[in-house]
Design goal:
It is built from six helices and nine strands; from the N terminus they run αααβββαββααββββ. The chain starts with a helix and ends with a strand. The chain has helices at about 1-30, 40-110, 115-175, 225-235, 275-290, 290-295; strands at about 180-185, 215, 220, 240-245, 260, 295-300, 305-310, 310-315, 330-335. β2 (about 215) and β3 form a beta hairpin. The strands form two sheets. The protein has a seven-stranded antiparallel sheet, with helices on both faces. The protein has a two-stranded antiparallel ribbon with strand order 2-3. The protein is an alpha+beta fold. α2 (about 40-110) packs antiparallel against α3. The protein is elongated, with a radius of gyration of 36 Å. The chain has two domains: about 55-175; about 185-335, no CATH class. The longest helix has about 70 residues, at about 40-110. Pfam families: VldE (PF26571). InterPro entries: ARB_07466-like_C. Keywords: Coiled coil, Signal.
């Protein structure tokens, strides 16, 4: 009897211990669950890679603009210097032929005070003309020399930025290897509407923004650039249920730099989009990709694929349900 009671007590204690373990573990598991799939580390790496790539791309574009301006300046200086060459040769010949003695003889042989003054003025004018010609020639030569030096520096700068872009591309590819990362077909729509460009700085870079404007999809806030992208998508006909700001432990949503667009017309469904809903998601993803440069898109995730400016479309096989693998919504992250 005692042995039987002991066995029942032991079994009861085991069940109690298991229940306690479930209670303790379950909240921690829920807290670490990521509705977007992937990991916090992955998103941080992708953000750093995307921002670094975009900054290098902007610097490269600016360098190419300066290179074009310098090339035009060099061409003008060389053309002007060539045009002045004949005049410089004339000055050199005149100086050689006249010399100091001939100049004095010319003045002494003037015959009268008036003739002397006229010849003196002529020589003075000639000297000024010669001086101006030589100064102009030297200036054009110096300008051309500086332009060539600056052009060489721009070539070095461009190679440096190309190297940075390649490095950031590689960082993104290595990070995406965690969730598949292989080349993917992607989503392209040649009929995608053109979005109005978001404001940029004078150097072509994106202004630093924070969560300062009211989010029309929630009670939270988003950045001005995110709002612009959302409004452009709406204007292009993508008006299905969307949520941008949301409280999360990581990612762009709590920063107001991301939006989730439901593929289904009735809102987020716990199933993969098919038929017209799938087509809607395909077209929306293609819209954001086509207008990435105008809107400031960092990346787009849709139907187990992710697009970044540096990598193009890549596989995104994060584990989980439709939300985690993005088969029920299009995810947009902004720079």
């Amino acid at each position: 009897m005692a042995a039987s009671l002991l066995r029942r007590c032991t079994a009861l204690l085991a069940l109690l211990a298991a229940a306690v373990a479930l209670v303790l573990v379950a909240p921690a598991s829920a807290a670490s669950a990521d509705p977007e799939g992937g990991t916090k580390k992955l998103r941080i790496t992708l953000e750093n890679a995307a921002k670094g790539y975009d900054a290098a791309k902007t610097r490269l574009a600016n360098s190419k603009k300066r290179q074009k301006q310098l090339t035009e300046a060099l061409k003008r200086s060389e053309t002007n210097a060539t045009a002045l060459t004949s005049q410089v040769n004339e000055v050199a010949t005149r100086v050689y032929q006249m010399g100091r003695v001939n100049t004095i003889s010319l003045l002494l042989g003037s015959g009268s005070a008036n003739n002397f003054m006229e010849r003196l003025q002529s020589l003075d004018m000639l000297a000024k003309m010669d001086s101006g010609t030589l100064a102009g020639y030297r200036n054009e030569i110096e300008t051309a020399k500086k332009a060539k030096t600056a052009l060489d520096a721009e070539v070095i700068e461009q190679q440096r930025q190309v190297n940075v872009m390649a490095k950031k591309k590689r960082e993104a590819e290595l990070a995406l290897a965690e969730v598949g990362g292989g080349a993917a077909g992607g989503f392209v729509d040649p009929d995608s509407a053109a979005a109005k460009p978001a404001p940029r700085n004078s150097d072509g870079s994106w202004p630093k923004e924070s969560c300062t404007v009211k989010d029309p999809t929630s009670s939270g806030c988003i950045t001005p650039r995110t709002l612009h992208a959302y409004q452009e998508a709406q204007a292009a006909g993508f008006k299905r249920y969307t949520v941008c700001f949301s409280e999360r432990s990581s990612g762009e949503h709590p920063k107001g730099r991301a939006c989730d667009h439901s593929a289904a017309s009735g809102g987020f469904e716990n199933s993969a989009a098919t038929g017209g809903d799938k087509t809607y998601g395909d077209r929306l993803a293609a819209f954001y990709v086509k207008n990435a440069g105008e809107l400031g898109v960092m990346y787009v995730i849709w139907y187990r694929q992710i697009w970044m400016p540096s990598t193009g479309w890549r596989a995104y096989s994060a584990g989980g349900g439709p939300a985690a693998v993005h088969t029920n919504h299009v995810h947009l992250s902004m720079l």
